[in-house]
Design brief:
This protein is α/β, with parallel strands linked by helices. The protein contains 18 helices and 27 strands. The strands form 7 sheets. It has a 6-stranded mixed sheet. The chain starts with 9 loop residues before the first helix and ends with a strand. The chain binds alpha-D-glucopyranose. Alpha-D-glucopyranose (GLC) binds next to loops.
Length: about 675
């Protein structure tokens, strides 16, 4: 037998796995295809997610199990660093930062004894009512790709296998176990799958199949998705594991469909059931060898790599990691409105400040489902503001419940900060038994919050609304009477500190929306949280708004700063396999600030039905006061292709394209220039 050791190369691992497959019994192979008795552990631990759960592996053949833990808000095992939710991170548009988040997560997974991180959630936000919106990176496949890749890179650097999930088209929560998602081939390939493909190209080790059906077949049984596209077209070498509760429905469906591992335990992938299916000729031994081989090969590829460092316990939730959580919260907050330059607040001009709303004072880090990072202490908005100000200003708190007290407190204060929004009951993974999460019925705030905003703003013209949530919140009922609005998300353990620094101008906000906020929800695609069946169209988010000429309340890619930026001298260059856009961006304000420069490609002249424009590049750029930078963004030619379902291939049209660059997706604020391919 070959010895398993650090530094083995891929062909040595292949040889070993082939040797093992030759010498393993059928039962031993089948044992690679499921998790190892989760429930006893959950009972022992008095709760879920308190350790990494193992699956597969073989003592006899020296193959360690894979040890699964969840995310993406951080590692869910208690003590870990709780980051802002993925949507807040996407709003930073800073992929280097996301890679550093991945780096922290990778280290903490290892320090907890895990080796597989099930938290690269890259489902597309088709409709903002989706309950798990916060776990992903927004409505655009390119943005999802860049962030998914960055997190994967960071995590896998520490020899932790990453999982991209939920494969695929998982964008409705309440109906997740049953809904059949229909869509045409272009929609599948161009809108719902590109981000998964990018993560696979980047070497993402594993895939988790989704609960829902696509074109009538459960994703965990879907041979078109798993065998033809993932393992065939994309040449994926890792393994596919199922989502946990009802991800597999029957033995033959799963095995023949291309699912390699049933998680978290064998129900349909039990030795006896698989043997029966084999004997009945419904599956083949080659399928078992393929699944077991993939699992063992993937595990060995990671556990035999030299580690870049040691992973001591002290790393978990350490100061350095909290700093990354703070930076992420600072960079992700999005300033949506700032009339009369109410913000940043000048503490020398304020003597009394009031903070309203229950969410100013409670731990509110997001969903209470599988992404919940158990953390003892969180810096709430109120704590952050009080800590920041010390004794310099009187800070009053009012939970906002008593209208009379609200009026008086609002009147007496120089500034009113109203913290409102959502929590784990409003949105998140839907766990019926715990009455938590699910899709939202409305995109607006609760009536009580709107009433609070109305009462406060009638008494105090310096009112600022701080929104907490993981997705779009509509604001038409109240946004005109509020001068400043800040989207603060579920911003993790350090959120309150980040908020205070932004409110008082130590940090100049630079986040931008990873989705469109509509004025009227009717402008969004059809959504039914209880749907048995639904058709996903080619258009959603900004592509739908562009197509129909709807004006959003706040466009995709939008966010203000305490300074303004001007764009000039847009140029385009087509070289070999690249289209290169360059533009001068100037900070025209009095302090430093970050601008997220976005590049879109327009397809107006296309011979086929294509969006007005698509995001194809972005860069977050720091600019000092008065500084101008020439910003260059490259787009690889293959990123301009469309999927031709007839030829079953990606094709690049020979037409005149438009290259747009600017600070949001808003058409009349983008500079544009034509180029030909
Ligand atoms: C769930 C989720 C999935 C998670 C898994 C394990 O039901 O859908 O995201 O990774 O269970 O907790």
């Amino acid at each position: 037998m070959i010895e398993i050791k650090k530094g083995m190369n891929e062909s040595e691992i292949d040889d070993y796995v082939n040797y093992v497959l030759e010498h393993m019994s059928l039962e031993e192979k089948i044992a690679q295809m499921s998790g190892n008795g989760l429930f006893m552990k959950v009972i022992e631990d008095k709760g879920f997610g308190k350790r990494a759960y193992d699956a597969a592996g073989s003592k006899k053949f020296n193959i360690p199990p894979f040890k699964f833990t969840d995310g993406p808000r951080g590692v869910i095992i208690p003590g870990s660093t709780c980051f802002p939710v993925s949507m807040a991170r996407a709003a930073s548009w800073d992929i280097d930062l996301e890679q550093r988040v991945g780096d922290v997560i990778g280290k903490e997974v290892r320090a907890h004894g895990g080796n597989l991180f099930g938290g690269v959630c890259i489902n597309l936000l088709r409709h903002p009512a989706w309950g798990r919106a916060q776990e992903t990176y927004g409505e655009d496949p390119f943005l999802l790709s860049e962030f998914g890749v960055a997190l994967t890179r960071g995590v896998q650097k520490h020899n932790v296998m990453a999982t991209a999930k939920h494969f695929a088209a998982n964008s409705i929560e309440n109906a997740r176990f049953k809904v059949n998602v229909k869509m045409d081939e272009r929609t599948l390939r161009e809108v719902y799958l590109p981000h998964f493909k990018r993560c696979i190209e980047e070497g993402c080790a594993t895939i988790m199949s989704a609960y829902n059906k696509i074109r009538g077949k459960y994703c965990g049984h879907n041979n078109y998705l798993l065998r033809d596209i993932l393992k065939g077209d994309w040449n994926f070498k890792g393994f596919v594991h199922s989502d946990w509760m009802y991800g597999v429905k029957d033995t033959v469906g799963g095995v023949a469909g291309g699912l390699d591992v049933e998680m978290p335990r064998a129900k349909y992938f039990k030795v006896k059931k698989i043997k029966n299916a084999l004997e009945a000729g419904k599956i083949t031994e080659a399928m078992i060898d393929d699944a077991a081989g993939r699992v063992m090969r993937t595990i060995l590829n990671y556990v035999t790599k030299e580690d870049p460092q040691n992973y001591e316990n002290e790393l978990i939730g350490c100061k350095e990691h909290y700093k990354v959580a703070l930076e992420t919260a600072e960079k992700g907050m999005v300033l949506l409105k700032n009339e009369n330059e109410i913000l940043p607040l000048n503490k020398n001009k304020i003597s009394k400040l009031v903070v309203f709303g229950k969410y100013a004072k409670v731990k509110n880090t997001g969903d209470h489902g599988s992404s919940n990072v158990a953390v003892k202490k969180v810096i709430t908005p109120l704590m952050g503001i009080k800590r920041y100000l010390g004794d310099s200003i009187e800070v009053v708190y009012d939970d906002g419940k008593d209208q009379k007290s609200v009026k008086n407190t609002a009147k007496e204060a120089d500034v009113a900060i109203i913290v409102v929004g959502l929590n784990y009951k409003d949105e998140g993974e839907y766990i019926k038994e715990f009455r938590t999460g699910g899709d939202r019925d409305t995109l607006s705030l609760h009536d009580k919050d709107i009433e609070l905003i109305n009462t406060v703003s009638a008494e105090n013209k310096n009112s600022i609304v701080v929104l907490i949530g993981g997705s779009a919140i509509t604001m038409e009922e109240w946004k005109d009477q509020i001068p400043s609005i800040l989207m603060a998300w579920y911003s993790g353990v350090e959120g309150g500190n980040a908020l205070a620094k932004i409110l008082f101008g130590d940090i100049n906000p630079g986040g931008k929306l990873p989705f469109t906020i509509p004025k009227d929800p009717k402008h969004l695609p059809y959504f039914d949280k209880n749907a048995d069946e639904i058709e996903y169209g080619y258009y959603h988010g900004y592509t739908l708004f562009d197509k129909n000429g709807y004006e959003p309340a706040f466009p995709f890619g939008f966010g203000l700063s305490y300074v303004t930026f001007s764009y000039s001298d847009l140029q385009v260059d087509v070289k070999n396999d690249k289209v290169i856009g360059t533009v001068d961006v100037k900070n025209t304000g009095k302090i430093a600030g970050d601008e997220v420069v976005q590049l879109y490609i327009g397809f107006e002249q296309s011979q086929i039905d294509r969006p007005l424009k698509l995001l194809k590049g972005f860069k977050r750029i720091p600019l000092k006061q008065n500084e101008t930078k020439n910003v260059k963004i490259e787009v690889s030619r293959k990123n301009l292709a469309w999927y031709n379902p007839e030829s079953k291939s990606w094709e690049i049209e020979k037409i005149t394209y438009t290259l747009y660059m600017g600070g949001s997706s808003k058409n009349d604020e983008l500079l544009s220039i034509k180029f030909e391919l």
